[in-house]
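ok here's the first one, seq then struct tokens
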Amino acid sequence: MTGQPRIPLDDLTSDALDQLYAELELAKRVARSAARDAELALTQYLVAEANRDRYRHAWQSARQRAEAYGEGIMRLCDDRDTYAGWLEQEQAHSAALRADNARLTAGQCLDSRAMCEQHHAPPVAGCPYPRCRAARGDQPTPAPRTPGVIDLPDISTA
């Protein structure tokens, strides 16, 4: 009970009745306010719960991506060592091929005139370039051509 003495209904005055109605209205307002506060609190709780789930999902997704990224980095590091080994093998093979090519073309002119001039200063038998042919006496070296001049056949003796 409330601790206040009960008033018998016969002794109830209109002022006391008005005071009771005022207390009832105040209690209703407090109850409605409490209900609104409870509804607001429930809404805030539901929003927070939804945000929590969304943030948890984003955090887990970020953690999974970070783990996958880390695993990828480790895999690339392992692959890098493998690729470095392959590169060293290919560089050694390429150097061996270059040395073999230089050895094989030392007495021949297979690639270009620059190769001919690089590999032999004295003329080499079988070299197709005019420098070697002229030095061997196989064929006379033609006179250098003047740019823009067209060579015509000599018809004076015809």
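and now the second one, same deal
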Amino acid sequence: MKLPLRWYSISLPVLLALLLASLPAVAKQTAAPGTPVPDCFEDWWQVQIKEIASRAEGPEALLPLRVLESLMETAADPFEIVAALSRIRADRRTHPLVAAEIDIRLLDWDLRRGDLAAADARLARLGTLRDFEISGPFARREDAQASLSAGDAGAWRAVRTGANGILPLDSLLHPSSKGFALAVFHLRAEKTIELALRFGADDRSDVWLDGRQIAAPDGMHGLAFDQHAVFFRVSKGVHRLAFIVEQDAIAWRLFARLTTPGGSRLPSTVTLGSLADLGSPLLAADTRRESRPVRGDTVATLLEKTQRRKPWIKAHLALDQGSRQLPDRESADAVA
């Protein structure tokens, strides 16, 4: 049975199939003189591993990673590939966003073999938000906003995500169609710091920081890893971040992680927890806009930078956006 971590649109398998069908011919045409073309899958996947490792400092590594992932189960021992990818992920030269893409794929394999300790460690390394307070469902977005502003503690319920890091709102709130849910978490910063909140939601979600909306992605879609990202700054103290997750029908889910703007793990100066655990009062709501925008990286922005030097990357960018169920770059815009 496939786990719900395979979050791809229907177009992605078609694109990969076309790509895979062309690989033998492309390999024979582009291989350097004297370079043998792999004749069996075991040799082929090792070539792909070398390709991923050689490109791991940037987003170009994701193309061979996606191709390899689509055929991992064909290997005599898929966990040999898991081990090889783990070594690339652990390499300090690997870009943190590439390492994250490897981690989210290997999380599926941790769960397949029932290694919950490895899955928990992987989610922690990703900066995955595991503990939330939720409330709802609400019939209107305005009702969810009013509840968030009121901060009625009696309406909130503490919940934890599943082993895959997904918050299954459709299993926690009823009715689970045509509505809105609030999912809140708190953090304490020991000093002013810039952060990145990377998230995916089914069907969509707004993000609020201390009473101020900081992200409002367009469009309804299924869940995908790092579907959206918003970059922001917090001052010293305790802050509340909230998702208002919209639901139409069927799945109603959220996956979110907190990192530095460049994609690295949070420093020890940032602590997540409940208000009681953090031991400090919540800072007053602040609806002022950022005076200086916070800049950060996503796979899409890194690919766009690379595209200036290598025009063929445009196709890679389209594939990446399709895998995140985003029709175009405008869908990932955020209010900062």
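notes on #2: The two ends are 40 Å apart (CA to CA). The longest helix spans residues 11-30.
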